[in-house]
Design goal:
single chain, alpha/beta, Rossmann fold, eight-stranded mixed β-sheet, 36% helix, SAM-dependent_MTases_sf, methyltransferase
């Protein structure tokens, strides 16, 4: 997922989330759930495993994992967005717990607590990546697994180009502070960072997936809800409706018999604590 985000917004973007955005994300995040299920299959999670989901969102993937670990296992999901955790808690059960928390809060967990930790469509939102990986390594058991999916900072998809070009066309310039996913990395940077953290990489793959939406509005709603209300946040408000209309017009050019195609390059990493 990518958004335009100003430098100023990096410190406060969580405040833009609402109950309505959280609910819409729960309805529209099927692409992220699909990426997550693929990652979970690759992780080889077993019955009775203790699992941590960092950035669990509304809890759909954690619910899936709870069915794998069974009654002797346990899944804990944490997310800094209160509205999303409220939805996730409706999915809680004996072996599935949700708490408000972020990658900065991992100190709450004891050393060697988990068989598996994963971050699905979350890593590009984390500013302190090295510290987070160090903490994950601490709370993982020996030979415990870490899985993550994230976007590629350097991907050049049709929708990315459409958004960039629409902003430039309406504003007449590209905002200097505008960036895609504020803390995203390219594939080489991701691999180097994980290797530097001391994990042994079992799998590192980059896939280009396509998902389809019935309308351009659905795509924009996904961007808005998955970015917690920060989509096009650096655009002066009087120009945003014009930018949105330009994006919608261009998205229609991506329509196929299955709907409007949304391509996305996803990086999947499976690694192990030695």
């Amino acid at each position: 997922m990518f958004i335009f985000l100003s430098k100023k917004m990096k410190a406060v973007y969580l405040d833009k989330d609402t109950k309505e955005l959280a609910q819409r994300y729960d309805e529209l995040s099927y692409s992220q759930l699909a990426h997550g299920i693929k990652m979970i299959n690759l992780l080889g999670i077993k019955p009775a495993d203790q699992v941590l989901d960092i950035g669990c969102g509304t809890g759909k993937l954690a619910l899936h994992v709870s069915e794998i670990v069974g009654p002797r296992g346990r899944v804990i999901g944490i997310d800094p967005l209160v509205c999303r955790v409220e939805i996730a808690k409706k999915r809680a059960k004996a072996n599935l717990l949700f708490e408000v928390g972020s990658s900065d809060d991992l100190y709450r967990f004891a050393d060697n607590s988990f068989d598996c930790v994963y971050l699905n469509s979350v890593f590009h939102w984390i500013e302190k990546k090295e510290e987070t990986l160090t903490e994950i390594k601490r709370i993982l058991k020996k030979e415990g697994k870490l899985g993550l999916t994230t976007g590629d900072k350097n991907q050049n998809t049709p929708i990315r180009s459409i958004i960039e070009n629409a902003v430039i066309k309406i504003l007449g310039y590209k905002p200097e502070e505008g960036v895609f996913s504020p803390f995203s990395l390219g594939t080489q940077e991701i691999q180097s960072l994980i290797e530097k953290s001391g994990f042994s990489i079992d799998l590192f793959q980059v896939d280009e997936d396509s998902f389809y939406s019935d309308t351009a509005e659905q795509i924009l709603e996904f961007f808005e809800s998955s970015s917690f209300g920060n989509f096009l946040s650096q655009i002066p408000q009087e120009y945003k409706p014009h930018v949105v209309e330009e994006i919608k017009k261009e998205l229609e050019k991506l329509r196929t018999p299955r709907g409007i195609e949304r391509k996305h390059r996803i990086v999947t990493v499976i690694c192990k604590k030695l």
